[in-house]
Design brief:
With about 325 residues, the chain is of the alpha/beta class. Helices cover about 35% and strands about 10% of the residues. α2 runs parallel beside α5. The structure holds zinc ion (2 copies). The site of one zinc ion has 8 residues, from α5. This is AMZ2 protein.
Length: about 325
């Protein structure tokens, strides 16, 4: 069965060709429209299913190479641009737009302080209900991103994210990909709900950006109707911890890439070329400063190899060229 026949509602068409992303919750003052912090987490699945959340056992793990940290005042403004551009390369041909951010109080979701981490959490189910009313007509999907931690129901410790394929809405949190998530000492006796509207954004390292890009594309693939990959190492493999998420590759395996191509309709080489440009500092113009790309280095090397293979002219004597000469 062809993938888009299985999930025809997820095929991009003339009326529906934009991915909308809604920043939710606290962002640094003055940059609320353009900032999302740190890294990513992740999960969402088919129809209301949640993936995720073990207990506090996945703490630790710094996730490899330390990228150059950017001054936070600058990253406030550009992080979402970096994420947006990456998504545009990954889903080549689809528009990716960020909506104006909303405050937690506007969403009116249930909240709590997690008993293990002592951090605020938002009830993801309530956020999904809110998003349905906000989904633009031309949206393929609408996903909220937040720096606050999420939980799907009272009995769960946390969830990286949650999505509904039926409504095309999802929410996911970058909170647990921030290196400081478990370590910020906080006096919870003084915790006030107003904290939900204030947040100090951590500096964005290359590792953090890579994680954020990976989780965004993973979640958005779900919104295109793709389920967790069980075939190869793939960016849409399931994961229950940050370590596991870090081990996932940046891109899709060949089977899942073909599924996405069915839904989005791009040329492979053009898409790989766009991603290679993303990973190449010199290709960024002065309009948007280049992100810290150290953590993207191995992905870049892989892309270069793939493109050599895809763009190589047929070798003389190969089946194609011998047919041509006949
Ligand atoms: Zn997933
Ligand atoms: Zn796959």
């Amino acid at each position: 069965m062809r993938f888009t026949k299985e999930y025809p509602q997820h095929r991009v068409n003339r009326q529906r060709r934009t991915i909308y992303i809604l920043p939710l919750g606290p962002f640094p003052p003055g940059h609320a429209g353009q900032s999302t912090a740190a890294a990513a987490a992740g999960a969402s699945t088919s129809a209301g299913e949640t993936e995720a959340g073990s207990s506090s056992s996945d703490r630790g793990a710094t996730g490899g190479a330390e990228g150059g940290a950017c001054p936070s005042s600058r990253t406030d403004k550009v992080l979402l641009s970096w994420l947006q551009k990456f998504c545009q390369c990954f889903f080549l041909g689809v528009d990716v737009k960020f909506l104006d951010p909303v405050r937690v109080r506007e969403v009116q979701c249930k909240t709590r302080i997690n008993e293990h981490t002592k951090q605020w959490q938002l009830l993801s189910k309530d956020i999904l209900d809110y998003l349905v009313s906000k989904k633009p007509r031309d949206a393929i999907c609408l996903v909220a991103v937040t720096m606050l931690d999420l939980y799907p129901s009272d009995s769960w410790n946390f969830v990286f994210g949650q999505a509904s394929l039926v409504t095309g809405c999802g929410v996911f949190s970058f909170a647990r990909y921030d290196e400081n998530f478990y370590y910020i000492p906080r006096d919870r006796q003084k915790a006030k709900k107003s904290e939900l509207e204030e947040f100090n954004m951590p500096p964005v390292t290359s590792v953090l950006l890579l994680r954020a890009c990976k989780v965004m594309t993973h979640e958005l693939c779900h919104m295109f109707g793709m389920k967790h990959c069980i075939y190869f190492s793939c960016c849409i493999n399931g994961s229950n911890s940050r370590d596991e998420s870090d081990r996932r590759p940046v891109d899709l395996c060949p089977i899942c890439l073909r599924k996405l191509q069915e839904a989005v309709d791009f040329r492979l080489a053009v898409r790989f070329r766009a991603m290679l440009e993303y990973c190449t500092k010199e290709s960024w113009d002065s309009g948007v400063p280049a992100p810290p790309l150290e953590a993207f280095e191995s992905f870049k090397t892989w892309l270069e190899k793939v493109l050599v293979f895809l763009e190589e002219p047929p070798v003389a004597g190969s089946e194609e060229s011998s047919q041509a000469s006949n």
